[in-house]
Write a structure and sequence with these properties.
Number of strands: 0
Order of helices and strands: HHHHH
Strand content: under 5%
CATH topology: Four Helix Bundle (Hemerythrin (Met), subunit A)
Distance between the termini: 18 Å
Number of domains: 1
Radius of gyration: 17 Å
Shape: elongated
Number of helices: 5
CATH architecture: Up-down Bundle
Structural class: mainly alpha
């Protein structure tokens, strides 16, 4: 099921919020390729785009945090490094698995079932939890009244 942008994900910095919305759309492409057998071959491309943009976003977000003197900067940067490493490891595995996969429908379905839980769990955990919880700690720095952000 696709991840939909919610107002409670907004942290109040225009560029970071735009990055988060775009990352959600990239993640939804990954998720789609895991549900539709004919699109599994595109998974490395979609996941690669997701990983590349996540790295760009992390660098941008860290630069914003550093410039504003955000007290959780170092911890946040380390979390970004852990997430990027996990995503890169998973990207390598996806490519290896797909390269070794026979070209029959049964093999495609089996590989989708094998990869789906791991990819969805990691990406959703990062996409949702990281944005809502970790990035949410920046909200008071950008929003004059954090209570003005209401859950959907």
């Amino acid at each position: 099921m696709p991840v939909v942008w919610r107002e409670r994900m907004r942290i109040g910095h225009e560029l970071i919020d735009a990055d988060h919305r775009y990352l959600l759309s990239l993640f939804n492409s990954v998720e789609l390729s895991l549900r539709v057998p004919d699109t599994l071959r595109y998974l490395p491309v979609f996941f690669g785009q997701f990983l590349d943009y996540a790295r760009e976003h992390f660098a941008r977000e860290e630069q914003v945090q550093f410039k504003m003197g955000f007290p959780g900067y170092l911890e946040h940067k380390l979390e970004h490094q852990r997430i990027a490493a996990k995503l890169a490891e998973l990207q390598d595995r996806i490519s290896t698995e797909l390269d070794a996969m026979p070209e029959d429908e049964e093999a495609v379905a089996a590989l989708q079932e094998q990869l789906r839980p791991e990819i969805l769990e990691l990406a959703r955990t990062w996409v949702i939890d990281h944005i809502l919880q970790t990035d949410g700690k920046m909200r008071p720095w950008f929003t004059p009244d954090p209570a003005a952000i209401r859950p959907d």
